[in-house]
Specification:
3 copies of one chain form a homotrimer. By secondary structure, chain A is of the alpha/beta class. Chain A is 29% helix and 15% strand. Chains A and C meet through helix 3 and helix 9 of A and strand 2 and helix 4 of C.
Chain lengths: 363, 363, 363
């Protein structure tokens, strides 16, 4: 069989920790650049996080700063969420996002109740989401919900008494993915989180703002930093990409948007290339194809970074992994630290990880 | 999309903790009324909990008292189950009951191994329940089992060396649900747990004692407090409701039982209305219909309370939620505290949460 | 119903902890016989465990010694894996092995992220195992993988940056089961782990070395102790049992192997009888039948022990459970302690449970 007659080379000694992609110096750079203001995070106390519309600039910046602060520490001195229980309800299955949230919560010292299979829930028996929310309020201190329907999270907040995070509601939003995207961008260029960026950047977004939740939430957050962005180029096969009112809203918030149908001609001018694999259409998806692909031979601008929320399809070739354009692995890793910062803020425990007064009275 | 062009009102600030249904003053009332006697709980040490027949009056009362004691504390000073492992084996899927038990165990400081999908167990490969019990005895300190078969829990106790809780065995029993029901009733009227109730109560049970496990267990526990109960009216479409010998047994234990086929004429005289949605027939169920429904316009007696083990169907209209008859949400919430009291007793850790001597030698 | 008219005898009092199979004196005997050398375990630090080929004699012996040391302690004084996260990825479902690993990790103080249903993973969407390994490296501190494919674990170690345990890869290997088998044998006869065994033993292996992962790994580990083994008799219906080169490799390592097609004539001369129920053929299995069965009337040698990795089929009759030949229950129980020793070593925490210096710098 595979390795029983001769031992596989990788099994002959300790793990060779190869290229660590993007190292610890990046969050340090972010910490050095952004002034500490953890008080801004108190605004998240006992609040739901459903839409990227809920965030202002300082909140995003301070979340990223706290994430960086956590990322550079070897371990947390005190577990801020000891005794707290998270309910992860993945009614639309997802391993990657679930593990990221559960890893974040456990690293903060909390316990978890998981729902990974919707067919085992009362919801399958026809129970209303309002009743499920009542149940969750009794058994947990916070909820992470993913569902293929856009309305589910909005139905739950009608009765929910503990904070919920929208971890993807159909084709609508996925705000914590967008926060993790910005955390990655700010680790790459901390000056973009300040009033005075060194240079403005051109960002390419390969995807569909009206049908991809990650793209929708990302554009909303990017619009909070519009003065740092030369232009966002939305690239897809057609240019019928926006929901009614969506593009106008983003432009009103200051974002300069252009659409394009071919990627290669745009690439040499892009500082950030955000690519996504999955175009949700109801419960199914179609893959991007043809010109909308990246590999190590693509005509990147020097120093350009590539982001991808993963899992990837053929649009992101593995030949890119070993290049310096690969920031998508750093993005995946950083998502956990960003979620640690967010969760700690939502359950009113910022004072246990940052220098700020506790809320006078937690509800 | 849903909330991206305009922010949903509930997302504009902290969670509005609306009506908390039944407040903290209720368990306080129970604590003030019932004399402390935690020694009674030592009888549960290292014992299985399979049938409501196992309980005597003082045990039920002291479990409810300890549950109340836990409910009124902000947090437990010491986690009594640190280092203990619970196995939750839901061979018949259920989210609500599983989350309640897992929340209870985590709040006591313990860890959990979950089986939520019977197709992933050895049982699917034809392994005997005696062998599964042997396995569970090695890997956990206690077991919670739900199964659609009546015999499974009895097969497991043949070889199990750690305590098991029957969390529903087919149409047979569900004793911890019944304990949670009594906890709710005693929070409402603590005098019913004493020798001298102020007045006796009339309890309506809409359901099927011979085919509903929750009803079967509830009637057994109610019979321990027969002197406080004017009458139990069992209401259903037919009056062929009892198993052979079941009604006679309850009457021997002192319960006065009457059957009725219509709900509305009975309602104005009922102090407690216990309604259930699901009539198990093998693996399927039929819903109660027609006259057997409650809403805010139903002719309740003043001060009457409504209980329901949830999840609900059409028999319990949401218009009742905002009324003072709604004690079913308190019932669901209290179930966790009751289970905390029970689990702590079963794994011989009462002395860590109440003033009682530890067992001289835990087995 | 089952037990509501009359209480089941087993429910009338505390659990009768019947025959504890093999008691605590066995690991004590092992501790007394084997000299302490925990430094040998440092070789496992930050290493994958995929094949039995990775182990040398002293490593196996010291792992068994540490397992015994853990087994005899009432509880661990310090939880060596506090704050560490294990990912259990059972892409081929298994309850028994998953619970054993999860129980081991929890008893060491760590937290767990479980994947019990492969259809909920990105793998089902076509994500590569290299990308899954990248994800696991971000979210956990160690991984346990079971998969029906032989290659999966080898694909993951190409990119994985945290230690992985192969908990069964198709028909290839299952090294921790084999370690647990040796732990059982050494508890029975600690002298077999020394240079000078009192007597050599004859071991019967009923199974298929080329198609059963447990047997393949066991034979490799047994060959490390060849001087203690008179002979291994591999018993099956045919004698076409080995992969090309497999038997030659074992014989080169010093093991004396004979094959036989009937069990009963061999039994009276066997000291150890290892029997296995399941012959994997791709994703399905065939049961052993006919002569290849054991029960309490089988012609065992006096003092012979029976091992079985469980779950069992008809080949291992329950009439054997109450006999002194039953060491398979001890084997199942001990597997958790063996895995505790192994996991602690792999994540570089041996110094927290044994008297050895910590690694100067954990990677």
């Amino acid at each position: 069989m595979v390795g029983t007659l001769e031992l596989h080379p990788r099994l002959r000694g300790p793990i060779d920790v190869r290229v660590h992609h993007i190292g610890i110096e990046r969050p340090r750079l972010l910490l050095d650049t952004i002034p500490e203001n953890p008080g801004a995070l108190l605004a998240l106390g006992n609040r739901h996080v459903v839409s990227a519309l809920q965030f202002d600039r300082e909140l995003v910046v301070q979340l990223c700063r706290l994430a960086a602060d956590i990322e550079v520490r070897p371990t947390l001195a005190h577990m801020p969420l000891t005794g707290k229980i998270l309910i992860t309800a993945f009614l639309e299955p997802s391993t990657r996002t679930r593990l990221s949230f559960e890893s974040a919560w456990h690293r903060l010292g909390g316990d978890i109740l998981s729902i990974t299979d919707p067919t085992t829930t009362g919801i399958a028996k026809g129970e209303s989401l309002a009743d499920v929310a009542e149940m969750f309020s009794n058994y947990g201190d916070a909820v992470v919900l993913r569902d293929s329907g856009e309305r589910s999270v909005y139905e739950m907040i009608e009765t929910l008494r503990v904070p919920i995070i929208n971890a993807g509601n159909g084709i609508d939003e996925h705000p914590t993915q967008a926060l993790a995207d910005l955390y990655t961008i700010f680790k790459w260029r901390p000056d973009l989180a300040t009033d005075a960026p060194e240079t403005r950047v051109r960002i390419g977004v390969i995807g569909d703002p009206g049908r991809m939740r990650t793209v929708r939430s990302l554009l909303l957050l990017l619009s909070l930093f519009a003065w740092t962005i030369e232009e966002v180029v939305v690239i897809n096969r057609t240019d019928d990409l926006f929901d009614p009112g969506q593009r106008e809203q983003l432009e009103q918030r200051g974002l300069k948007i252009r659409t394009a149908t071919r990627l290669r001609p745009e690439l040499p001018a892009l500082d950030v290339v955000y690519i996504n694999s999955i175009a949700w259409v109801g419960d199914t998806f179609e893959r991007l194809t043809g010109d909308l692909q990246l590999d190590s031979d693509s005509p990147f601008k020097a120093g350009a970074i590539v982001l991808h929320p993963l899992a990837r399809g053929a649009e992101l070739d593995v030949s890119l992994d070993a290049t310096r354009h690969n920031w998508y692995f750093s993005q995946a890793r950083g998502a956990t630290f960003l979620r640690m910062a967010l969760l700690t803020s939502m359950v009113e425990r910022v004072h246990r990880v940052a220098d700020v007064k506790p809320p006078s009275k937690a509800v």
